[in-house]
Specification:
- The structure holds two protein chains of two kinds.
- By secondary structure, chain A is mostly helical.
- Helix content of chain A is about 75%, strand content about 0%.
- The longest helix of chain A is centred in the N-terminal third of the chain and has 33 residues, at about 30-60.
- Helices cover about 35% and strands about 25% of the residues of chain B.
- Classes of the chains: A mainly alpha, B alpha/beta.
- The interface of A and B includes residues 198 and 253 of A.
Amino acid sequence: MTRALAVLTVSLGLLSLLVGQAGVGIVDGTILWSLRAPRTLLAAAIGGALGLTGAVLQGLLRNRLADPGLLGVTGGASLGAVLAYYYGLAARLPLALPAGGLAGAGLAAAAILLVAGRTGTGAALVLAGIAIASLTGAAVAVALSFAPNPFALAEITVWLLGSLEDRGWAEVALALPAVAAGAVLLLGLGRRLDALSLGERSALSLGVDVAATVRRAALGSALAVGASASVAGGVGFVGLIVPNLLRGRVGERPGALLAPSLFGGASLVLAADIAVRLVPLQQELRLGVVTALIGAPMLLSLVAGGGERP
Amino acid sequence: MIEARGIVVARGPRRLLDGVSLALAPGELAALAGPNGAGKSTLLGVLAALARPDSGAVTLGGEPLDALPRQVRARRIAWLEQGARAAWGMTVREVAALGRLPHGDADRAAIDAALDACALAALAERRIDTLSGGEARRAMLARVLATGAEVLLLDEPAADLDPAQAFALMRLLRREAEAGRAVLAVLHDLALAGLFADRIILISEGRIVADAPPRAVLTDAAAGTVFGVRFGTDDLPRVLP
């Protein structure tokens, strides 16, 4: 299954290189190299980060409803980026937006790690994450209410919906190392997550350092998701849906879901980003909108078909 | 040999365990009995090194438990949580294989032997959430056995089992003890404890009030006082294995 999904990811990546408003096909080396290649790479990296993080968090919390958004890191990234807009930094410095996002994500992650590191339980991790997410959500709402002008308001709103439009190699350089580091941390958690399916005390009795596992999951998720959100904005739903879609095919053992969720997430976001470019609208559809448009019916049909036990 | 000396666990002003000492030798099957809230699970948790006592110490083969690396501890002491269940619909084999985690291997022979011992060979590839309650409990036990630990600490392994299943479970624990393991099981069914255990450790309000063979513990003076019951000698039919 992992191999099939990896092949799907590579195929969609190649397709993504060939598709765009300039037409289908290799039109121009510059378009290919400076626009489509970084965009493709980012789509795969962000999708992989979200799918993998979703699988890890669901395993850690023993709950199929867990989603990377619960960590509050996405909220932190949004707030950082919004502040960059708000103070006009984004207009002066093109990289101010992702840099602001990264700073916000980092602060949110630090706060969560502080709490999770102290208590060392998955439940505390998520409660802290939800608190941070609410806090950043409120702060973003305040920024929106006091937006300096309608143009800024529209920009912020659009950014919050997620997009990969016009992202280049600078964004790749900013996000990719953090995503890769996070993914390495998370992919190594498989057997510990398997043990945690019996509960935290049983895992402890099996020799698993549960507190260290929670810290590593929090750090890995924060790196991967924070970097993703800082360059692409809010791309929702991927982390929630991908592991749930795959569970019926690869089995429910949490460790077995990690690599497939990485490639599944990459495939979903690549497909969504291709769709975004192919739908002939004056303004591009937002990536976060399309992942939800693709993902929601898939999840609904899965639930309706009884493939998913609540 | 696992040995606890003077274990005290306090929560606020309340002492959950108040100076508990006991020793369990290889080959022994002991039942831990006592009213709800007496400290049975707390004691098991301390013996499994899941909780640190406020005072007192546990030794395994003469070595303090805290001095052993966590992996080594997990290889030598296996613990079954009360009401243990798996959060995901893993297969029975996948659940049993978790018992090999402390060894860092997937020793197929050990896993198969554990599945066989729990009469689960035919159900090995079934998802655990499709099994009956008794079968799922056996799968959890198979996970514990797959570790091959020298000490088995089982918190209410017989809860919710019908009489035939409970007898089968106790026979299995008996065999494990005869194979040289030290087995300590929390049991609420005193009749079951009396039929199978070498000794019954009776605990009440955090103290051990009796630690002796069943015949000496299942009396009005000992267990009768602790539970507020009497032991009858009339001619009602008794369930036997």
